[in-house]
Design goal:
The complex is a heterotrimer of chains A (484), B (299) and C (301). In chain A, helix 10 (228-239) packs across helix 11. Chain A is built from 20 helices and 9 strands. Chain A starts with a helix and ends with a helix. Chain A has helices at 2-22, 30-44, 67-81, 94-103, 115-123, 136-142, 145-150, 174-179, 196-208, 228-239, 259-271, 284-290, 304-310, 355-369, 378-387, 400-409, 412-424, 437-453, 458-476, 480-483; strands spanning 58-62, 85-89, 110-113, 161-173, 216-217, 298-302, 322-324, 337-345, 426-427. Chain B is built from 12 helices and no strands. The chains are: A alpha/beta (484), B mainly alpha (299), C mainly alpha (301). Chains in contact: A-B, A-C, B-C. At the B-C interface, helix 1, helix 3, helix 4, helix 5 and helix 6 of B face helix 1, helix 3, helix 4, helix 5 and helix 6 of C.
């Protein structure tokens, strides 16, 4: 019986340890906040008599983009507001993981968002409208106007603030174009292609001349949200294809709208081997990095990467010769596709939050979205200066430190172009408030991959996309879900 | 026979390459400096090997040369360290309990006849057939109701559910291959049935129990989906999701961090595998369904 | 040995019959299984009888409509094909590699212990880690396999292994790397029990290496082979981690097995009822295949 007793004892001990551990505070800045309190005491020379940090922690769930910076900002927030906030890093599939957590009512206070999911989450009742937050109108007036309009849903509520925004354009490597005689001595393109077919023809020229084996790096990588769907959306915007009716939220694309030309062009690019063969399986990081190797002439890229990778001498052999194309090839001759990401708050009522916790959440929100306790654009400035993530506040585009940082890697011409694109650009209005867009986009990635590979013809792809959109519109509803 | 020996040794070499090449691939990237990782063709020996990736993964501060960090520590390293600790605890606890419970049950199946014995055997096998992705939502709902999400207990319970059927199945075969006479002798000498189990059978079955313990431990250490859904972002977060946080498809990070983190997570695995490899080869495979129990073996 | 127990207080303990004792031992096991296996399975079935709204929280009862939809769903049909491709490759290669390694390890040569540790290692490494490791090998930007072939002069430029035609087989290969040690240890256990005299006898009778294998070895492998086939098939059909880490369901859905499809439907589209339906469908497929094994190999003599 002794062995049985020992076994039972071991189980009890282990169980006790496990139970103890599970009741401990989660990993996070609990240690740093304690240290900060101590340093506060040290500097003021008096014991801090203010209330201890709140016991309920605020959870800010972020995706994988420079979490080290976000963590640093969280620490500053905790110090300034004497708070208990934690950054929760969600690996990989951000939306899928968070959605299941929210369904189970696991505490999450602030999240990142992109437009298709923001609509869906709001309809599911998970997001908190921002209009009642104290000071929100001041923040709104501070922002570039169209961005605040963009986050307004058809029922009038605003859902998010800008975490960052930028413009997708066709970027080019001036050195490579020079070899083909398509760029001048300064590395700027002399004859920007007017249509996507022109672009492909230029690429074929360069391929034949042996300058670049696969000159075009389309945005066709494999990933959960930033994938070939984005490349497709970009080309649609270039051609002026709207995809969705703004009033009724019906799909309005078919074989007679520009979407067919977009699909044919996509297939063409792959068929003529103008894009790398393995592009559909490359990760986002790989796609972004290889453009700097000098083996590609054109890439559909977001503006911040020029300052982060391409024109940085330590990372890029052709540093200094990367520029934006403007306007973009295509019927619409647009400046580019504006793409924002947002901060959003989870719904207080859904979580049965007490009023003080809701207030704390609002402080966290304003700290990140706008100004810190001292009235500086702390977070916004850091993101813009160090990583070239555009922010929603015009004064920052004139801040001398920020301008100096940009001008290190962006030429004068590109800097002006960037400002112009960001101030007057067009985000995708088609997906704002469209409830069926997110599930549609989900299935879209595979359809586009099959299209590019030639498994499904462009005509059939468009027909299938439309059929799926109609089906999902019927299933989830259109504009009427906002009025009923 | 010389040609045969040469053939055998050649096969040994092939086997060694087959096993070592993947591990070398990832070890290589964990010691490379960031700039070298994009070099093509691969540098089989890095020009400037360093352990910066390991330092960063374990929470050290960047030296300033790392892209995208600006001298800050890696944010994924703290969850990762907790993940390693939590996984070790959960795996060990699961193993202890699972071995205990399944050996009791397996002994009953191996030595005793009772109604529904066969039916239970079949159900043990079939419980493994449903894919993990199917059981996730019910588990999620159950655990949310019982407030077990993000607790160590919850994860232990989950892994017990995944491993006990398998462990029992293996142990039934193992116990039944042990000679009954020793047990009979013990009973004649006056041992109670429970005593027989704990004092006689279990010491004899040492290697079988050890191999089952290894299987259960490795299963609980490396299981991904349940760890991701039920524990990521909570105090009880386990190693697998914290490790995948280094893969970062949205960040243009060089692949050294994920490589270093994977190498670190492989250390306990290698230790466990090396220590217990002799036991695992002694697992005897007997079909539990075929075992017949003599009438009244231990009366 | 066992000490004599004098004065064993048998009379004061109510004696359980053997049967009751057995039940007592088995009860924790059974209770556990009820609560944590059978109950979720039932829940899963009940969930499969509803469709969900866009937030994944409001179910609408639809009876067996999900099952009907799944039957005609081209994604499910395609996923079935992919699952079959994956499973067949895994099973075939696991048996071959496993058997080969087992025969190798059976040889009494020096270095055997170290080789055994090495051979066990891939199986001990968690499945998702294997996925991470192989993503460093098969990547078409920094992959070591590309590097190796290039250094050996076999290819002139980096190719993409994870293209839609090859991806499922490549992922299966990675899975075989992870899984075959288990197969080899089952086979090894059986091969080690073969008496050496049988080989001697066969050699005397003039049988060559291959003939000896067929006549002597195969006979003893019947049961381990059945076990390996069953386990490998079940594991291959269930495999999820490696696909999730390596290809996210693959270019153009070419590595979207049923198991991965369940994840997509449940967590990304938030149609949990439909996801549960597909998982029962997968369980059915698994059951049919393993039953076939039992029937076919059970009859092989």
């Amino acid at each position: 019986m002794t062995t049985a007793a020992i076994g039972a004892g071991a189980v009890i001990v282990v169980g006790g340890v496990a139970y103890y551990l599970s009741s401990q505070a989660p990993p996070g800045p609990s240690t740093t906040t304690a240290a900060a309190t101590t340093s506060e005491i040290m500097t003021t020379g008096a014991p801090v008599t203010s209330a201890a940090r709140p016991s309920t922690e605020l959870v800010f769930s972020v995706w994988e983009w420079n979490p080290a910076m976000v963590k640093e900002n969280v620490d500053v927030f905790n110090q300034q507001y004497n708070e208990n906030a934690r950054m929760d890093l969600v690996p990989g599939d951000y939306y899928a993981t968070l959605e299941s957590r929210i369904i189970a009512k696991t505490p999450v206070h602030m999240v990142y968002q992109h437009m298709p999911w923001m609509t869906r989450w709001y309809k599911a009742g998970w997001l908190q409208p921002l209009d009642d937050i104290e000071g929100i109108n001041d923040m709104a007036n501070d922002m570039i106007p169209y961005l605040w309009d963009y986050v307004q849903m058809p029922d009038g509520k605003h859902l998010g603030s800008i975490y960052w925004f930028g413009t997708f354009t066709v970027q080019y490597n001036g050195k490579v174009l020079q070899k083909a005689g398509l760029a001048d001595a300064d590395g700027y393109i002399t004859d920007p292609p007017k249509t996507w077919d022109d672009l492909l023809n230029q690429c074929e020229q360069m391929k034949k001349a042996g300058i670049a084996d696969t000159p075009l790096l389309n945005r066709w990588n494999q990933e959960f949200s930033w994938n070939i769907c984005q490349g497709f959306e970009f080309q649609c915007i270039c051609e002026g294809e709207e995809l969705v009716d703004k009033k009724t939220h019906d799909p309005i694309f078919d074989l007679n709208t520009p979407v067919l030309a977009v699909c044919e062009n996509m297939r063409d690019a792959y068929k003529r081997k103008l894009v790398p063969e393995g592009i559909l399986t490359q990760t986002l990081s790989e796609n972004e990095q290889v453009f700097s190797t000098g083996k590609y002439a054109y890439a559909v890229e977001v503006d911040y990467n020029i300052g982060n990778i391409y024109n940085v001498p330590e990372k890029s052999p052709d540093a200094g010769s990367f520029h934006f194309m403007s306007p973009q090839p295509g019927k619409a001759q647009t400046g580019g596709m504006v793409y924002p990401a947002f901060y959003a708050l989870t719904n207080h009522k859904y979580y049965n939050r007490p009023a003080d916790e809701a207030k704390r959440t609002e402080n966290l929100f304003k700290f990140y979205s706008w100004k810190d306790k001292n009235g500086d654009y702390l977070v916004a400035k850091k993101w813009m200066k160090e990583f070239y993530l555009g922010q929603a506040y015009k004064p920052l585009f004139e801040d001398p430190e920020i301008v100096a940082s940009y001008r290190k890697y962006y030429s004068e011409k590109d800097w002006e172009l960037l400002k112009q694109n960001n101030f007057t650009g067009e985000p995708q209005w088609a997906m704002r408030g469209v409830v069926w867009y997110a599930p549609w986009r989900e299935k879209l990635q595979e359809m586009l991959q099959s299209l590019v590979l030639g498994k499904v013809s462009p005509k059939d792809t468009v027909t299938n996309m439309r059929a799926l959109a109609d089906e999902l519109r019927k299933k989830y509803g259109g504009a009427e879900v906002w009025t009923s | 026979m010389n040609s045969r020996k040469i053939l055998i040794y050649a096969c040994y070499v092939l086997l060694a390459i087959w096993i070592i090449f993947p591990i070398y691939s990832i070890a290589l990237y964990s010691f490379m400096p960031e700039i070298e990782t994009l070099a093509a063709p691969t540098h089989w020996i890095p020009d400037n090997p360093n352990i910066d990736a390991y330092i960063l993964v374990l929470g050290g501060k960047g030296k300033g040369g790392e892209t995208w960090l600006g001298g800050r520590p890696l944010a994924q390293s703290e969850p990762f360290k907790y993940g390693l600790l939590n996984s070790a605890i959960v795996a060990t606890a699961t193993t202890l309990i699972a071995v205990l419970v399944s050996s009791c049950g397996a002994y009953a199946f191996a030595r005793f006849n009772f109604r529904a014995r066969n039916a239970w055997l079949v159900s043990l096998l079939f419980s493994r057939m449903l894919p993990a992705t199917a059981m996730i939502i019910p588990y999620y709902v159950m655990f949310a109701t019982w407030r077990l999400i993000g607790t160590h207990i919850g994860m232990i319970i989950t892994y017990l559910a995944l491993s006990i059927p398998l462990a029992t199945w293996i142990l039934i075969g193992y116990f039944s291959s042990l000679p009954v006479d020793v047990e009979k002798a013990a009973r004649i000498d006056g041992c109670g049935r429970l005593e027989t189990l704990f004092r006689v059978v279990i010491p004899m079955a040492g290697s079988g129990l050890a191999s089952v313990a290894v299987i259960v431990w490795l299963l609980s250490w490396g299981e991904f989906l349940f760890a991701l859904v039920l524990s990521a972002g909570t105090p009880a977060q386990l190693m697998p999701p914290t490790l995948t946080a280094f893969l970062a498809p949205l960040v243009v990070q060089y692949p050294t961090y994920a490589a270093a983190a994977t190498m670190i997570s492989l250390l306990p695995v290698i230790v466990v595998a090396t220590v217990f490899q002799r036991y695992i080869t002694r697992v005897k495979i007997v079909d539990p369904m075929v075992i017949t129990v003599e009438k009244g073996p231990l009366a | 040995m066992v000490a004599l127990k004098s004065g064993h207080p048998e009379s004061s303990v109510r004696r359980l019959t053997d049967r009751q004792f057995a039940y007592l031992l088995v009860i924790p096991l059974v209770a556990f299984e009820f609560a944590l296996v059978l109950y979720p399975m039932t829940q899963s079935f009940l969930i499969s009888l509803s469709t969900y709204d866009v937030s994944g929280t409001k179910p609408t009862f639809v009876g067996l409509q999900n099952y009907v939809d799944a039957f005609f769903d081209p994604y499910v049909q395609r996923a079935t094909v992919v699952s079959m491709q994956f499973a067949c490759t895994v099973v075939a290669l696991s048996v071959l590699v496993g058997l080969g390694v087992a025969l190798l390890l059976n040889e009494e040569l020096r270095g055997r212990a170290i080789v055994r540790v090495l051979a066990l290692l891939p199986w001990a490494i968690p499945e998702f880690s294997v996925g991470i490791i192989f993503s460093y090998i098969f990547s078409n930007v920094l992959g070591t396999l590309n590097g190796l072939l290039y250094s050996l002069g076999l290819i002139r430029s980096y190719t993409s292994f994870l293209n839609p035609d090859l991806a499922v087989y490549i992922v299966a290969l990675a899975f075989v790397w992870h899984y075959s040690p288990l197969a080899s240890f089952f086979f090894l256990g059986a091969v080690q029990t073969i008496p050496a005299d049988l080989y001697k006898q066969a050699k005397i009778d003039g049988a060559g290496m291959v003939r000896r294998f067929r006549v002597v070895t195969l006979r003893f492998l019947r049961y381990p082979l059945l076990i390996v086939l069953v386990l490998a098939t079940v594991e291959a059909l269930r495999a999820f981690d490696i696909i999730f880490v390596l290809t996210y369901g693959g270019p153009a859905g070419s590595t979207s097995t049923l198991s991965y499809l369940i994840y997509t439907e449940t967590f990304r589209t938030l149609q949990m009822g439909y996801g549960a339906t597909i998982s029962w469908y997968l369980a059915l497929v698994t059951f049919i295949v393993t039953s076939l094994y039992f029937i076919l190999i059970g009859r092989w003599r």
